[in-house]
Amino acid sequence: MELAMATKRPDKKNSDGEKTEKLDKEKEEEIFQKGFEQGLRAQVSKTLLELREQQKELTDNVELLLEEEEQEGSSERDNGTFISSMYETITARFLPGWRRKQHIWRLVVTGIICMAALLSVIYAFLPSRRGVVEENMT
C-alpha cells in the first residue's frame, strides 16, 4: 500500500508542476503580448509624429508657393488671358470643327474595338470543323 501511495503522490506533484508550468507559460505569453503591443504602439505613434511633421512642412511650402504666385500673378494674369484668347481665336479660325472631328474619330475607334470584341466572342462559341466532322463520323 505504501508503494501505491508513493506512486500516486508524484503524479499529483507532476500534475501540479504541469499546471504551474502552463500558468507560467501563459503569463510569459501575456507579458510578451503586452510588450509587443506597447512596442507597436510606440512605433506607430513615432511614425504618426513623423508624418505630421512632413505634412506641416508640405503645407508651409504650399502656402509659400501660393503667396509667391499671388505676388507674381497680377502681371502674369494679363499674359495668361492674352494667350488663352489667342488660342481660342486661332482654333476658331484655322481649326473649325476640330473638336467634333476628334469626337467622331473616337467613336469610330471605339466602334471598331467593340465589333472586334463581339466577333471574337462569337468565334469562340462556334464549333471547329474538325470537331463537327468527328461527331458526324461516329
Automatic annotation (TrEMBL):
Keywords: Coiled coil, Membrane, Transmembrane, Transmembrane helix. Residues 8-26 have a biased composition (Basic and acidic residues). The gene is LOC118420263. The chain crosses the membrane at residues 104-126. This is Uncharacterized protein LOC118420263. Residues 41-72 form a coiled coil. Residues 1-26 are annotated as: Disordered.
